[in-house]
Every structure is written in structure tokens, then in C-alpha cells.
Amino acid sequence: MATVQPRAMAIRSRSDLAVERLKTSILSGELRPGQRLVPAVLGEAWGISQTPMREAFQRLAATGLIELVDQKGAHVTAISPEDCKDLFTLRASLEGDALRRSIATGPPGWQQRAQDAYTALAENLHEDMFSNAEKLDSFDQAHREFHLALISGARSHWLTHVIELLMDNSIRYRLGTLRYRGASDALLEEHKRMLDAALANDADLLVQLNDAHLAKTIELTQELATKSE
Asked: Is 1 part of a structural domain of the chain?
């Protein structure tokens, strides 16, 4: 069995630290949309060498939070209301179809998965998560799992695959606007109403609630873009 060398482990741990610092700085607004990111400058400020900084750039570029400019740097991904609307409108359309399929033909167990996912979502909602990348990641994963659980009864591999792809590409808008919504009881209640509709097999209400949930990200992204002008 191959072993991980100590040096490789050290670089990985420094890379993890760089990812955490970058993500927290972006989501807190310390690093603004469109701002140039230079690994040497950030690395010196944070006490991290350029190799793990560049690896962190690559990892966050995959999430859409930053965009690579060239071999030497990157910039924080700019907010695009048009792109956000395109992504979330398409998500609403596809998820609406998947939600109706779940209600109509979902196999035994899919509603229990949704209940379990909601419990995990509630457990991972913390007021200080916007200043803690690890907690924010845990919440985002729980949030993602909740929405995937709601469509798990659709039993369509390709429909689920495309929705997951859209989720992955919308993370910068989802997390960027989440900070402005806050870790509130209202946010949790919003998801509880969706769960209740799923448990009641009320497809029309579930789709309506999901549409409204996704529309809030579009609205907030537009507000943030207007403020930054």
C-alpha cells in the first residue's frame, strides 16, 4: 500500500489552511468580487508558502468562488445576476419535475431520507459559521443533501446528475447570499415547510416552496450586484 510522505502531508495541510482562509475572506466580504488575488501577497500575509496557495487557488476555482487569471494569480469571481438567474431558473424547472416524480413514484424510504437530512441541516446551522470555513462547509453539505433527498424519489439518474451539476456551479451564489440571510430560524423554517409538504405528499406546495426558496438567491444576488456598483 502506498504511503503519504510527510512533506506531501504538510503541503496538503497548508493547502487546507489556505482554502479555509480564502473561502472565509471571500464570503465575509474581506476579498471583494473581482478583486485580484496574488499567491505571493496573500501567502506572505497569512504565513503560507506559494505552493499550497496555488493549490488552494485550483481547488477554489473548481467551486466557482475564484477564477484563475494566469499562472501567477486569480481573482474573486464577479457577481453576475444574469448568470445567477439562468442557473437558478433552470434549477427550479428541473427540481420541480424531480419533486413531482418523488411524490408520485418515490420508493419507500425517500421521505425518511428527507427527514434525516433536515435533522442534519438543523444541527449544522450555527451563527458563527460565516467566520468558520469548516462549519460553513458542513452546513453547505447538509443543505445540499437536504435538497438531493427531496428529489431522491424521482429515480432518474440523469435528472439528478444534471441538478447536481447545477448545484455545484451555483455554490458562489448560494454561499455568497447565505451570509446576508444569516443563520436564522426563518431559514430553518423555510426548509421545514418543504419537508412538511414532502411528508404530506403535496407536490404543488412543495414545488411552490422550492421555487420561492431558489428565487430568494436570485433576488439577493441582484441586490448585492446593485450595491457593488
From this structure: no
Residue corresponding to grid cell 431520507? 113
Instruction: Assess whether 153 and 184 both reside in one domain.
Output: yes
58 within some domain: yes
DSSP E strands: which ranges in 28-116? Answer: 36-37, 66-68, 74-76
Q: Which helix or strand (DSSP H or E) is residue 54 part of?
A: helix 50-63
Return the pLDDT at 179.
75
Q: Are 163 and 144 in contact (CB under 8 A)?
A: no
| C-alpha grid cell, residue 223 | 441586490
Is the predicted pLDDT of residue 4 greater than 60, yes or no?
no
Q: What CA–CA distance (Å, rounded) separates 35 from 42?
A: 12
| pLDDT at 11 > cutoff 50 | no
Q: Amino acid identity of 12?
A: R
pTM of the model: 0.77
CB within 8 A of 91, min separation 6: which ones? 163, 166, 167, 170, 214
Query: How far apart are the two ends of the chain, measured CA to CA in Å?
Result: 55
CATH number at residue 26: 1.10.10.10
Q: 68: helix, coil or strand?
A: strand
Assess whether 136 and 98 both reside in one domain.
Answer: yes
